[in-house]
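Minutes, project huddle
Topic: does the predicted pose make sense with heme C bound?
PN asked that the exact inputs be recorded in the minutes so nobody has to dig through chat later. Recorded below.
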Amino acid sequence: MRLGNATASLSLLLAMCMASASGGSAGRRVTTAGLVTMGRAQFVEMCAACHGNAADGGEGPSLHRLGRTPDVIASTIRHGFKDEMPAFTSLNARQVAALAAYVHSLK
Ligand code: HEC
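Predicted holo structure (tokens), as shared on screen:
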């Protein structure tokens, strides 16, 4: 039946979208260490100009030992900070989680 097929391919499409929104190949578990590694690479590209390559400060503050939860850090990344740090609105959920995990891991 045609309608049934259409529904089936729609759910397949949805499943594919969800897999890519949560990032990467379906079914692969993302470890915190993996997120931190991914976050570090993104940090060098997007954040280092202000926070320094090792996040130890530059124009922006050092991000070591911030004492904030990954959720708070993620929110800062999405919304920016005061007037001094831009909001990073084009990042997907996984990219934000990776950056937050990296910043959170800094000792
Ligand atoms: C244009 C420069 C600039 C860029 C790019 C930038 N930041 Fe910032 N960031 C700042 C400044 C300046 C502050 C401090 C603002 C203040 O305290 O008034 C800040 C603050 C923060 C804070 C909050 C620190 C706290 O005390 O809670 C976090 C977390 C942070 N930045 C992470 C990032 C991450 C991750 C990126 C890359 C996605 C990034 N920043 C990119 C300039 C920048």
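Observations noted during the meeting:
- Residues 31-105 form a domain with the Cytochrome Bc1 Complex; Chain D, domain 2 fold (CATH 1.10.760.10).
- Residues 46-47, 49-51, 59-61, 63, 66, 68, 73, 76-77, 81-82, 84-86, 88, 99, 103 surround heme C (CB under 6 Å).
No decisions taken; revisit at the next huddle.
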